[in-house]
Amino acid sequence: MYGLVNRSFEDMVRARWGSTAWEAVCARAGVDVQVYVLNEPYPDDLTYALVMSATEVVGLPPADLLREFGHHWVLQTANQFHGPLLRAGGHTLREFLHNLPNFHTRVLMMLPGLLPPKFTCLDLGERVVSIGYRSHRPGLAPFVLGLLEGLSQLFQEPVNITHVPGPALAADGGASESYLVHWPSG
Amino acid sequence: MSATKYTLDASRFAAAFPFHVVFNHARTLLQVGEVLARIAPDVRPGAALDQVLPTTGSTAEVPFDELVRQPNLVALLKHPPSGLMLRGAIHQLGPGDNGPFVFLGSPWVPTATELVRLGLTLSDFAAHDAASDVTQLAQIHRLAQDDLRRLNQLQRTQQEELNALLELSPDGIIAFNREGVVTHANASLRSLLGALLPGPTPPHLAVFDSLLLAAANPAIPCVPCSELPDGSHDTIELLRPRPIILQRSARVLHGAAGVSAGRVLYLRDITHETEVARMKTEFLTTAAHELRTPLASVHGFTELLLAEEFPRDVSREMLTTMHRQSSLLVKLVNELLDLARIEARAGKDLQVELLPLVPLLREVVEGFYLESAPRRILLNLSAAAVWVAADRVKLTQAVNNVLSNACKYSPQDSTIQVQLLVRESRPRQEVGVSFTDQGIGMTESQLAQIYERFFRADPSGAVGGTGLGMTLVKEFLELMGGTVEVTSTLGAGTTVTLWLQAAAPPEDAQAPRNSNLA
Q: Which of the residues B29, B215, B480, B485 has the least number of beta carbons within 10 Å of its own beta carbon?
């Protein structure tokens, strides 16, 4: 994971549960990093350790915490650090979702040390798109759900999102998930 | 067979180059890319290129014909109303030299903010076009700069914390880089080593080592600081610029690829600790010896009495000795406990009260008349009535100890003078009680040891005592804010003066009796 993810998670815990909670999260996780360099890759284990530690410290199940982190990522972090770029991603939620695959392809070219997830976006009709998510990192499906919910809020387009769990990838133990994004009529 | 030349049809060309313009030799626009037309509505077919998209920057200085003839030259076109700048090249559409021209390019947008301002999104760019990547790279660069600033700030804060810690440390700390040059030395280092270090800046590690080793006690081997292993501790005894025992700790700094980046030395003054440890050992040895002597006597006589029948007068004499020795033991133990209590409680159990000094002195002295006879105690308490704030029990014990010494070390038929003194002092007057005997007196070196535990002016043992009396006197007086002064002449006698701060008498105090007893 790149440093921005850890930094964002830190910001969320500090903002929501206070700095003492964050110190406790780090101590419990055995992590002693004072500043995360935003564009620097960090071991995935570190991020997982922080998340698992945080679930114990703040008393939220991992799925709920990750989903909340997805909201925070879009509405706070991405907005703060990539705000204009986020807005350049599309004028509408649908346009943004269609740009997601390109966005991550370009990021991978610019920061080759990173291993971003792969997104696909498929129109299933006038009011439905299917978002495919594939990552070598397992267990982050709730985070993606939170991201999509956050984007819905950012673009002020209420949508229904249905998570269609996929099987764990045999090769790398990662995840392959689908999300149906549906714009209600009217 | 000629090779087939493939071209894009108009709609695919438009999708591949959403910011293109086609213009004729008169530079009139014939065709405009879809996205460009959207964000710059005045750039439309029929408009004059030079008006809606004039060349700009360094390109403006290049004759337009050159740009047209050399498609490898970068062409910069600017749309003045929006500030949009297009970067690309101009090609002639064939066949022949009569065809129109096409500008193929993309917006030059160095920031995402600019992208948004122009009303562009990432999907407005053709997939093959890396122009939008420039925007993302610029954003990444900006974040990296922010990181750098934050890391610099953090480093500055940590450096300040570290400097504060170093400067507040009472111990000497010095850091050398890989070349042995001093990178940091705290103020305590100079306090510890003082004149040993030449100049305001501590020297190179090699020089530092040679100065330290030259000042070290040659009788105790020690290794140079530069050779102390990482994490090691040892002690070094310096004879100059003042005798001092230092504990040295070394840390080797590990740089990139495990190469030493320098070393840090930590120097702690353990002179006092070492002296205290030595004194403790000495005290225990002496105390054990002092306790053993009367104990051995009691033990020996007990064994004799158990083993044999003795005549009554002999038995009695033995029992008397045993009683005297056990009394000494009790006194010794009590005094040791007094000293231990003083050290442990540091005066917290002091019961300070306003005391009239003269009656207290009179009471103690009267108690000595029998013991001191045939020596005479001459009381000269002619000074005005004085009050002191003191602990009655401890002051009484101090006077007792001094008077007891005066009696023990004075020949019979001699006189012991007790005199009340007053002297001006700040913040208030001081009252003294001096005890002058005509005893054996002390040499200067004996006088210097008078407050040491178990010290006796007569080491022969002929004069009884524990050797703790004057130690207690000094401790008691100092607890009560007073001092003790002792002057002595060998063979002529000793004067001990106890000084205390005078206190204002209580309002209901009765007029004192002035005494001049003999």
A: B485
State how far the Cα of A44 lies from the Cα of B254, in Å rounded to an integer. 27
B154 contacts in chain A (CB < 8 Å): 34-35
B1 or A12: which leads in pLDDT: A12
CB contact under 8 A, B122 and A90: yes
- State the residue range of the domain holding B318: 278-345
Q: Are residues B250 and B370 in the same domain?
A: no
CB atoms within 10 A of CB B75: 24
Q: Are residues B180 and B97 in the same domain?
A: no
- For residue B96, the domain's CATH number is 3.30.450.260
- Write down the pLDDT at residue B20: 95
Task: Provide the strand spans (E) within chain A.
Answer: 118-123, 128-135, 160-164, 175-182
CA A79, A85, A91, A95 torsion-angle sign? negative
pLDDT band at A1 (very low <50, low <70, confident <90, very high): confident
Instruction: Kindly determine whether residue A99 and residue B154, on different chains, have CB atoms separated by under 8 Å.
Output: no
User: What's the pLDDT tens digit per position in A89-129?
Assistant: 888 999 999 988 887 777 777 777 777 888 899 999 999 99
A113 touches chain B (CB under 8 A): no
Looking at residue B263, its amino acid is R
The domain total for chain B is: 4
β-bridge mates for residue A121, sequence order: A131
Is residue B148 assigned to a domain?
no
Determine, for residues A82 and B133 on separate chains, whether the beta-carbon distance falls below 8 Å.
no
Which residues of chain B fall below pLDDT 50? 512-518
| B429 and B379 co-located in one domain | yes
Q: Which of B269, B300, B328 is the last residue of a domain?
A: B269
Q: Considering only the beta carbons, identify the residue of A84, A103, A107 that sits closest to B112.
A: A84
Of A87, A98, A107, the CB nearest to B123: A98
Nearest to A39 among B121, B135, B140 (CB): B140
The model's confidence at residue A30, banded by pLDDT at 50, 70 and 90, is very high
